[in-house]
Write a structure and sequence with these properties.
Structural class: alpha/beta
CATH topology: TIM Barrel
Number of strands: 12
CATH superfamily: Aldolase class I
Strand content: 5-15%
Oligomer: single chain
Largest sheet: 12 strands, mixed
Number of helices: 13
Shape: globular
Number of domains: 1
Distance between the termini: 24 Å
Length: 384
């Protein structure tokens, strides 16, 4: 499988664009965590109880059932966002990455176990040269909702139309600033906010809706843009979601003082636009959504994994681009399915593997605990 990925030009002086608040942790190299891998993963995955396997669903030991599988189809990205990926990141060798056939097979097995939604993530999934084939393959093998998250920089009407015809249901676009200088500092790329906004317009025009926009606010960097970003929801009639800055950066420079809480962001927006709860969020929703009280189109969502964790209703499992299954975004343990996929395993064996991994899912990530350990692999290697 070829990954001859062409990336838009990165900012030439990435060091100068690094943000001073993102300081390195002593003793940890800028890319050391990515290079060393996890290391702590047990060699043998413990089996779930027989009655759990027999139930044919992915249920953990706390009674939660997996309904949403997030598949990272590539770890490559044309951005180097300061809260995610360092400029000198080393990508997985191509032979270590899941093939389209392996991705499609895992999606099919996951649906047989009750998964209702597939999210294609990365890296930047639109860099994958066989993206259309992956989407069409998942659609042919399942009837799940297929969504994709993208930085929006590489979108065209032709691509979006092809993906929709192949079976893509909706898109999520990340945009952390509407100011060109800040956007360059955060993404460390030569892409502009206008490029991403053009992608947003194209997604709406192609009907890849309901469209969601994601932003991460970092104190002292873009935390004064909450209202400007909220205006995008009103302009396009989409949901603008604000996600708290999480300890998943490859520089391992996360500091709670840099995190802008969901409550702070909401208060900043409500200084300009009154908000009313939609009361439409189901138990498994990551976001708490609000409508504009004045009746303007669009929604505002707040995702607060740090200040107000939603672990108790979590229904998600993650498959990384290199074939590791993670019970949680913050897992320090993950298990590789590659040996099974490439060793002739049956679908039943793959299903039992997913059931067993799910059974190990912890009650919560414990970010607020002094004992919290940041995962060795950053967001870009895990898939959001």
């Amino acid at each position: 499988m070829q990954f001859d990925v062409r990336e838009p030009e990165l900012a030439s002086d990435v060091t100068a664009l690094s943000l001073p608040q993102f300081r390195a942790v002593e003793g940890v190299g800028r890319n050391a965590a990515t290079r060393r891998g996890l290391g702590a993963t047990p060699e043998k995955l413990p089996a779930a109880p027989a009655h759990i396997r027999a139930g044919g669903r992915m249920m953990d030991s706390h009674g939660r059932t997996i309904l949403d599988l997030r598949i990272s189809i590539t770890d490559r990205c044309n951005f180097r966002c300061v809260y995610c990926m360092e400029p000198d990141v080393q990508f997985q060798p191509r032979e270590n990455v899941l093939t389209p056939g392996e991705i499609i097979r895992m999606a099919r097995v996951a649906q047989s176990l009750g998964v209702r939604k597939i999210r294609l993530t990365g890296g930047e999934p639109t860099l994958h040269p066989q993206l259309t084939a992956i989407i069409s393959g998942i659609r042919a093998a399942t009837d799940v909702e297929i969504a994709m998250i993208s930085n929006g920089s590489l979108l065209t009407r032709e691509k979006l139309s092809a993906w929709k015809r192949a079976g893509l249901d909706r898109m999520t676009i990340s945009i952390d600033s509407v100011r060109a200088d800040r956007f360059a500092r955060v993404t460390r790329s030569t892409v502009t906010p206008e490029d991403v906004i053009a992608g947003i317009e194209m997604c709406v025009a192609e009907g890849l809706t309901p469209l969601k926009l994601n932003a991460v606010l970092v104190r002292g960097q873009n935390d004064d843009e909450a209202v400007e970003l909220a205006r995008l929801a009103r302009r396009f009639g989409v949901e603008m979601r604000f996600i708290e800055y999480m300890p998943l950066d490859s520089a391992r420079a996360w500091d709670r003082s840099l995190m802008v809480t969901a409550q702070e962001t909401r208060e900043a927006i409500e200084d300009v636009f009154a908000l009313t709860p939609t009361n439409m969020d189901d138990a498994h929703s990551t976001a708490r959504t609000y409508r504009f009280t004045d009746g303007a189109p669009g929604l505002i969502g707040f995702i607060a994994p740090v200040s107000n964790p939603f672990c108790g209703a979590c229904s998600r499992l993650r498959l990384t681009a290199d074939g590791n299954v993670r019970p949680c975004l913050f897992s320090t343990t993950e298990w590789s399915v590659m040996k099974l996929l490439r060793g002739g395993a049956s679908d039943r064996e793959l299903a039992n593997f997913l059931i067993d991994v799910t059974w190990t899912k912890l009650a919560g990530h414990n970010i607020a605990s002094p004992q919290f350990v940041q995962p060795a692999r950053p967001m870009s290697a895990v898939g959001g």
